[in-house]
Amino acid sequence: MARLTFKQRCFSWASGHYLGEEIDVTFFNLDIEDQYKHCEENAWEPFENYRGKDIHGWINQLAHDIEYGLYPMEGDAFDQGEED
């Protein structure tokens, strides 16, 4: 089994939020147009009428946010003047 980079693992995890199931390791061997096609053909029901390129972009954005820790963490509320 291929060893995925952290970036690829984040993309794979994020794909489960937009596709019927997470992509497998072979996805990363596809050229970009085939990746778009895969996203379009395997879109989760709320996204099934969108282009594969759009779905791929949304997956990529969520993966990027996870990769770079751009999400709220417990304790962040203290930075906003909240106590709980």
Structural description of this entry:
The protein has 84 residues and is mainly α. It has one domain. It is 43% helix and 0% strand. It contains 3 helices and no strands. α1 crosses α3 and α2 packs across α3. The termini are far apart.
Low-confidence runs of at least 5 consecutive residues: none
Helical content class: 40-55%
Structural class by helix and strand composition: mainly alpha
Q: In percent, how much strand structure appears in the residues?
A: under 5%
- What's the story with the biggest beta sheet? none
Number of domains: 1
Q: Report the strand count.
A: 0
Terminal Cα span: 44 Å
| SS field, number of helical segments | 3
- Sum up the overall morphology in one term: globular
Radius of gyration, in angstroms, nearest whole number? 15 Å
Order of helices and strands: HHH
Report the mean per-residue pLDDT as an integer.
Answer: 92
Name some characteristics of this structure:
84 residues, mainly alpha, 3 helices, globular
What's this entry about, in short?
The chain is 43% helix and 0% strand. The protein has 3 helices and no strands.
Describe the SSE topology.
Elements: H1 6-15, H2 32-41, H3 52-67
